[in-house]
Amino acid sequence: MENCIFCKIINQEIPSYKIFEDEKVYAFLDISQATKGHTLVVPKQHVTDIFEYDEDLAADVFARIPKIARALEQAFPEMEGLNILNNNKELAYQSVFHSHVHLVPRYSKKDDFSIHFGNHTDQRTPEEMQAIADKIKEQVK
């Protein structure tokens, strides 16, 4: 893609702090570093978001994440956890429209990174939950 910053990074047109590269993915430090070691795993094939993945691309990208996660854990033994995030579309906070997976090392509850899902179990009846599940299940092919 012509003006895609991640395509330019993959093609070495823009410098990056490369962590890992093979024929399918390119992994590099996120320039914003939410925490030390915050890494992006990017498919070399330009796809906008998860909705454009086929099974092969998903297998290629997601199969490499544990290897990179273990590398982060080895590099930073003080790491106490890891968030793996994939934002899709603008409303879900995707800001670069070349799919990418964030690996965000966690060092403490005070590391200035948080995600809050909350507890919403009382918002839907069991019947509503079943209707939602059935609607999605019908679409899984």
In short:
This protein has 3 helices and 5 strands; from the N terminus they run H-E-E-E-H-E-E-H. The protein has 141 residues and is an alpha+beta fold.
Query: Any low-confidence stretches, pLDDT <50, length ≥5?
Result: none
Number of helices: 3
* N→C terminal distance: 29 Å
The sequence of SSEs as H and E is HEEEHEEH
Average pLDDT across residues?
94
CATH topology: HIT family, subunit A
How many domains, in number, for the residues? Answer: 1
β-strand percent reads 15-25%
Q: Radius of gyration, rounded?
A: 17 Å
Q: Give me the CATH superfamily.
A: HIT-like
The helix content is 25-40%
Notes on the structure:
With 141 residues, this protein is α+β, with helices and mostly antiparallel strands. It has a single domain (5-137), classed as HIT family, subunit A (2-Layer Sandwich). The protein contains 3 helices and 5 strands. The chain has helices at residues 5-10, 55-75, 126-137; strands at residues 18-21, 25-29, 39-43, 81-85, 101-106. A 5-stranded antiparallel β-sheet has the order 1-2-3-5-4, with helices on one face. The longest helix has 21 residues, at 55-75. 16% of the residues are buried. The mean pLDDT is 94.
